[in-house]
Design brief:
The protein has helices at 25-50, 82-87, 99-108; strands spanning 3-4, 11-12, 56-57, 60-61, 92-93, 113-117, 130-137, 143-150, 156-162, 165-166, 170-172, 180-182, 190-191, 195-198, 203-211, 221-224, 235-242, 247-252, 257-260, 268-276. It has 278 residues and is α+β, with helices and mostly antiparallel strands. The chain has four domains: 3-50, no CATH class; 56-87, no CATH class; 92-172; 180-276, Sandwich (Immunoglobulin-like). The strands form four sheets. Strands 12, 13, 14, 15, 16, 17, 18, 19 and 20 form a nine-stranded antiparallel β-sheet that branches. Strands 5, 6, 7, 8, 9, 10 and 11 form a seven-stranded mixed β-sheet that branches. A hairpin with a 2-residue loop joins strand 3 (56-57) and strand 4. It is elongated and about 135 Å long. The termini are far apart.
Length: 278
């Protein structure tokens, strides 16, 4: 008696109780191989329907294992491959430890390039982490522009190489809105809308009205500007008393003190000043 497997119904050898089984071995084996071949063909056909062998990956057929390189993978929304893009990435280079070595490196480049300066780089224009971007311009790449960006503060400078020399560092202004502060008044004075701020060009400006019900006194300090917001020498600024509309002046000292210059019974003082911080 012979048995069969459940899926492909292949013949299995199963001896009788007396240990003997009689059947045509040749016929049974051939029948088994034919069933296996038919099953394999059906599997192949099914797989071909899922992933047709006519399809390709970057021009490579799926008839065998496909090996992809960086050149086979394109950057998003670009014709440039990953390998080319990676070659252009910024690389930190600890050799560039001074302004001179950085500029020498930039002057020697034949193609646009990016590079990084290590944390000990000096005079570029000062020590810190810098990312450098070099552009070259015609004719014959004689013009080079080196941009350096502080990766922490985002401060950016540029230097231009004109045929045979660098013209010097120039700082680029950032589109940063200055912080506006309430005026630092002394006791007894009331702020009626005074604000002060400093631009990235180091220009300090303030304006507004100060009230004092007991009147104003000559040489009395009514406000003190913090460090970084002070002139490098004393300056005199026009002002106006109210309600008498009397013209007057205030003095802004290098230590930040702001003083009145006359004694008056007026209730308010209108003022406005703009100067470069020292």
């Amino acid at each position: 008696m012979s048995l069969k497997t459940k899926l492909l119904e292949l013949f299995k050898y199963e001896p009788d109780k007396d240990g003997a089984q009689t059947f045509n071995i040749k016929s049974a084996l051939n029948d088994n191989w034919d069933k296996i071949e038919a099953w394999a063909q059906s599997v192949k056909t099914a797989l071909a329907g899922l992933v047709p062998t006519s399809r390709t990956v970057n021009g490579k057929t799926l008839a065998k294992d496909v090996t992809l390189t960086a050149a086979d993978i394109k950057m998003p929304d670009s014709k440039e491959d990953v390998g080319t893009a990676m070659a252009k990435r910024a690389v930190w280079d600890a050799v560039l430890v001074s302004q001179q070595s950085a500029l020498a490196w930039a002057a020697a480049q034949k193609e646009p390039k990016q590079c990084g300066f290590d944390p000990h780089t000096t005079d570029t224009p000062y020590e810190g982490y810098w990312c450098a971007e070099l552009t070259l311009h015609a004719p014959s790449n004689q013009w080079r522009v080196l941009y350096v960006t502080n990766v922490v503060t985002l401060e950016r400078w540029f230097n231009i190489y004109n045929i045979d020399h660098w013209i010097g560092w120039r700082k680029l202004s950032l589109a940063v809105t200055p912080e506006v502060h309430n005026f630092p008044l002394a006791d007894g004075y009331t702020d009626l809308g005074c604000k002060y701020f400093r631009t990235q060009e180091n220009v300090v400006s303030f304006a507004g009205e100060v009230m004092r019900t007991s009147g104003f006194r000559a040489d009395e300090t009514f406000a003190v500007l913090p460090e970084g917001f002070r002139p490098d020498h004393a300056i005199v600024v026009p002002a106006l008393l109210y309600p008498s509309y009397t013209p007057t002046t205030i003095i802004i000292k290098s230590n930040g003190e702001i003083c009145e210059t006359i004694t008056a019974s007026d209730k308010s003082l209108y003022m406005q000043a703009t100067f470069v911080a020292g």
